[in-house]
Amino acid sequence: MNYQVNEKGYYGEFGGAYIPEMMVPNIEELRRTYLEIIQSYDFRQEFIGLLKNYVGRPSPLYLARRLSEKYQSNIFLKREDLNHTGSHKINNTIGQILVAKKLGKQRIIAETGAGQHGLATATVCALMGLKCIVYMGAVDVERQAPNVKKMRMLGAEVIPALSGNQTLKDATNEAMRDWINNPVDTHYIIGSVVGPHPYPDMVARFQSVISEEIRWQLDEQTGRENPTRVIACVGGGSNAAGAFYHFLDQENVELIGVEAAGKGVDTAETAATLTLGTPGVLHSSRSILMQTNDGQITEPYSISAGLDYPGIGPLHANLFATKRAKYLWATDAEVLDAALELTQLEGIIPALESAHALAVLKKIQMKPEDVTIVNLSGRGDKDMETYLKHFEKAPPKPSPKGRA
Ligand SMILES: *Cc1c(COP(=O)(O)O)cnc(C)c1O
Questions:
Q1: Whose CA is nearest to atom 13 of ligand 1?
Q2: Which fold has domain 56-86+208-391?
Q3: Whose alpha carbon is nearest atom 14 of ligand 1?
Q4: pTM to 2 decimal places
Q5: Contact, 135 vs 159, CB < 8 A?
Q6: What whole-number distance in Å separates Cα of residue 24 and Cα of residue 323?
Q7: In a designed cystine with 306, which of 77, 114, 191, 384 is the match (CB 3.0 to 4.6 A)?
Q8: Domain covering 10-51+89-202 assigned CATH 3.40.50.1100 in the classification
């Protein structure tokens, strides 16, 4: 079974490039050139050099001792939270800014929801001296003020998207409109494994450094390259794609993606796309989406702004359909508990998104000899307001087991 994209841009029945005619030149240029560019020696040298010396890779693979004790198994954390700018997003923006440079682009556009991808894009634009425009839903501009301030300090122009619900989906629409109007000098840095081919494949390749490192790091620490399972949270699916990538063909490695259930999968306030969705086309790619019977996209909800996207990358839709990966979910309440547990057992405050992956440790069977990798996609600094608001209402009780 081959889980990679085919030459037409499909993962099984998902993917493709459902684009308006006016976007064809941009996508065609990228489709024709991306593999040659990113596989060239010069590109690899520059990409690997920046990941090492600018981002701070390799990110540690850390055996979480007290967490492992609590669950009576072996749990390793892949520390993407320690990357420059605080999440895995920078792996992709470094790669794409180098592609943009090779294509001679002068101007970069991006969409952002919580602001983490906007921040990572503004960062690499400052690094390379390129003009940066970030589209962000007007509601998100209000909600994510600290990231907006950082992007502006980095020299990016943040443009509020005023259409629709004024969140991520609308920001994406605005960015696509900009690209259609500026096809020659502009590159659009998409922030996850979504959008038209070749974006899902290109972004997955840049993020695949995560599982590449896991394999040699695990070998170094335990004498085996393959864990029992890998767990990662899923919004569009880029950190999970990176953490799964080099294990896709290792059928004995269990792959688990975790969606945001919000208030619960039996409520309207949720973002559990694979659990509740149906096939359809969103943002130029065929995948599984949350939509009404007549095809209107339903507004997603999650406590973590980075996961409330109504779609999912086509790679994941295919892993779901072929049952190569399993997709579980975690509610807001379960996520807050898991975040507090990691903080008090290991001294690591995770991003709300990453805490979804941690939350399913309670929902799966782990044997004492199992080796489980949890991809810690980001750090919790950006979520402190949410954590404080919640934990002040219900003061945290330290878990007796954890304090033993
Ligand atoms: C953006 C983000 C996510 C969700 O995006 P994916 O493409 O699904 O990885 C998860 N975790 C963090 C910390 C993020 O910033």
A1: 378
A2: Rossmann fold (3.40.50)
A3: 306
A4: 0.96
A5: yes
A6: 33
A7: 114
A8: yes
